[in-house]
Amino acid sequence: MSMGTSTSASTNTDDEADRAQDITTLIGRDVYSNNGVFIGEIEDVRLDLDAERVTGLAMTALNDELFANVVRGARGVIIPYRWVRAVGDVVLVHDLVERPKDPEDEE
Asked: Among the listed ranges 44-48, 75-79, 87-91, which one has the minimum average pLDDT value?
């Protein structure tokens, strides 16, 4: 019986290792909009440890044309993971990232 328990524990450890490896493969990937516009590069991920899921992508090497007026001196931005449409060799996000609002436009 103890063999079944150790196998189960081993399987859980293997699943956790696989998930951790999947998450770390996001780091360094380029992010593009659905229209093919470069957004930035993933530097880190934001996690909800209780729910065991990714909640955001911390991005650097940002597209200056998109974020010059928005970021203003910050190192990067965090986009919600719910904006992600697909993950492969690159990460695709919704087009709304392409047009961040300029505070001056609202006046």
From this structure: 75-79
Instruction: Count how many domains the chain has.
Output: 1
Q: For residue 76, what is the domain's CATH number? A: 2.30.30.240
Boundaries of domain holding 53 = 2-99
**What order do you get walking across the sheet with 77-80 strand by strand?**
77-80, 53-60, 38-48, 30-33, 91-93, 84-87
- Beta pairing class for 30-33 and 91-93: parallel
State the average pLDDT for the chain: 75
The beta strands (E) that lie in the chain are given as 30-33, 38-48, 53-60, 77-80, 84-87, 91-93
| Gap between the Cα atoms of 10 and 25, Å rounded | 23
The pTM of the full predicted model, rounded to 2 decimals, is: 0.68
